[in-house]
Automatic annotation (TrEMBL):
<dbReference type="Pfam" id="PF06949">
    <property type="entry name" value="DUF1292"/>
</dbReference>
<protein>
    <recommendedName>
        <fullName>UPF0473 protein GCM10008983_19840</fullName>
    </recommendedName>
</protein>
<dbReference type="InterPro" id="IPR009711">
    <property type="entry name" value="UPF0473"/>
</dbReference>
<comment type="similarity">
    <text>Belongs to the UPF0473 family.</text>
</comment>
Length: 95
């Protein structure tokens, strides 16, 4: 499944309730071979501070789904934060 701009995905929480998220960006890290995804809740209010969630993911070829994994190491978090900051800076430059 190729992730496209403004794509939305459903992620269940620990209670099994499903929540709709908008995909902000995805990126691959060649050094580790991992792929990462950053999402935000669709139902977030315009005036609220934006909550962004990030996961390592793997695409499942047979059923076109994603398997999400928590980011556990500080090194991984730093990579994701750096990518997010770069995209935010680029977005501000375009405006």
């Amino acid at each position: 499944m190729a992730l496209e701009e403004k794509e939305r995905i459903i992620i269940p929480d620990e209670n099994g309730e499903e929540h709709l998220f908008e995909v902000l960006f995805t990126f691959d890290v060649d050094k580790t071979g991992y792929s990462y995804i950053a999402v935000m809740p669709v139902d977030q209010q315009e005036n609220e501070e934006v909550e962004v969630y990030a996961f390592r993911y793997e695409e499942q070829e047979k059923d076109d789904d994603l398997s999400l994994f928590p980011i556990e190491s500080d090194e991984e978090w730093e990579m994701v934060e750096e990518m997010l900051n770069t995209l935010i800076d680029e977005d501000h430059d375009d405006q």
